[in-house]
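Q: Sequence in, structure out?
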Amino acid sequence: MGQLTTLLFDVDGTLAETEEIHRQSFNSAFKQAGLGWHWSAERYGELLAVTGGKERIKHYIDKYAPEFEQPDNLSQYIADLHASKTEHYTRTVAEGKVPLRPGVRRLLNEARQAGMRLGIATTTTPANVTVLLEKSLAQDSLQWFEVIAAGGVVPAKKPAPDIYLYAMQHMGVEPDECLAIEDSENGLISAQQAGLKTLVAVSQYTHDHDFTNAELVVDHLGEPDNPSHAIQGSMNNSACVDIPLLKSMWKKQGG
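A: Exactly. Output:
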């Protein structure tokens, strides 16, 4: 077992509760395009099993919109629709309306102070990552991460391991020195197929997911005045998910 040197973060649902903004942005794009589609919170929860916005739209058309007259170039139509959705999403986030989840800023600052390496591994588009980090974390926060592995830089999205393998390759690190921080079952599967130990902080849309094989599952990363609670695994008497907890968990896992 190597030494824990690197934290790899998912974005949507992990750094911030963004999925509801994504849902609203999809609906705004549908309305703008003159479509009669509306994704309820319940429907969106189901659709989140499909990773990737364009893939989610295609799945919806195939399963829930049989009456839709598909254009000759369906792929381009979906890409344009998704680009419109991204514009709605980034505009909302740029207004500063999406706070980070409890403990995210604290843990990132602790990791940087401890000299740990940071990376991003997400299926969302690069534009979504940039606006969230710059508006909700810090203007220079893109530079905090050695790699921003996002969107279509790999052929297969989560739950495939590709995005984590890509991030580790670009950072020059091995799985036995990295910890993934996720919020969803697909994210957990992706990380574990890449050989990574994983901590899960459940989010608005993932409370009912199966996290059986995660090292630790918590409600959120925690703050001194808003402590974390373990759903699966042990906090080892820590009030928050912090660097000492992660290192003690790592040491225990390594035997």
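The radius of gyration is 18 Å.
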